[in-house]
Write a structure and sequence with these properties.
Elements (H helix, E strand, L loop, with lengths): L1 H13 L7 E3 L4 E2 L4 E4 L6 E4 L4 E2 L4 E4 L2 E4 L4 E2 L4 E3 L1 E3 L13 E3 L3 E3 L4 E2 L4 E2 L3 E3 L4 E2 L4 E2 L8 E5 L2 E8 L4 E4 L1
Parallel strand pairs: 1-4, 2-5, 3-6, 4-7, 5-8, 6-9, 7-12, 8-13, 9-14, 12-15, 13-16, 14-17, 16-18
Antiparallel strand pairs: 10-11, 18-19, 19-20
Length: 169
């Protein structure tokens, strides 16, 4: 009950600071230490779906679009970005080079992202995907009850609906 009150409190306290390009469903739970950054693209957006849970110290950055599906869970310290940094030696100092948008990130419904996982640009995770703690996701995975982990993340298990158990990927 206390967490529900605090979630409501922080939504009310910070709602006037939120960029209008950040859309959070009223049933989503966002910890107060989560960070949403939308860069200078006026068409960029972050959309958090119904019943989603965004844990403490999540960092979500975009200059295009990030979608977090219904009932998805992002554990603490998750990093999601559509951006990459410029590394052109002829363009001067690295710190003065513009971020480059590399494509949207889409998390389907009922996705679970483990503690301190990283979701990199141009990734789509289908419904019911589970990402292991500390994983670095560099490519997309389709719908269908898969468990991915590692750096870079790869399928380690799949759910067998007939036998109702997880089998090695």
């Amino acid at each position: 009950m206390f967490y529900k009150f605090m979630n409501f409190y922080y939504k009310m306290k910070y709602r006037h600071f939120l960029d209008r390009r950040v859309s959070i469903d009223k049933t989503a739970f966002i910890h107060h230490a989560a960070t949403f950054i939308v860069r200078n693209n006026p068409n960029a957006s972050i959309n958090v779906g119904e019943g989603a849970y965004i844990g403490r110290y999540n960092n979500i950055h975009t200059n295009s679009n990030i979608t977090i599906g219904k009932d998805s869970v992002l554990s603490d310290y998750v990093f999601i970005s559509t951006l990459s940094h410029g590394f052109d030696p002829s363009a001067g100092r690295i710190m003065s080079q513009e971020d480059q948008d590399k494509g949207p990130v889409i998390l389907g419904d009922n996705v679970f992202i483990g503690f301190a996982a990283k979701i990199l640009p141009n990734v789509k995770l289908g419904e019911w995907t589970i990402v292991g703690a500390g994983s670095v996701v560099t490519k997309s995975y389709p719908d269908g009850f898969v468990m991915i982990a590692g750096n870079p993340a790869k399928v380690i298990k799949r759910y067998d609906h007939d036998n109702k158990n997880w089998i090695n990927g």
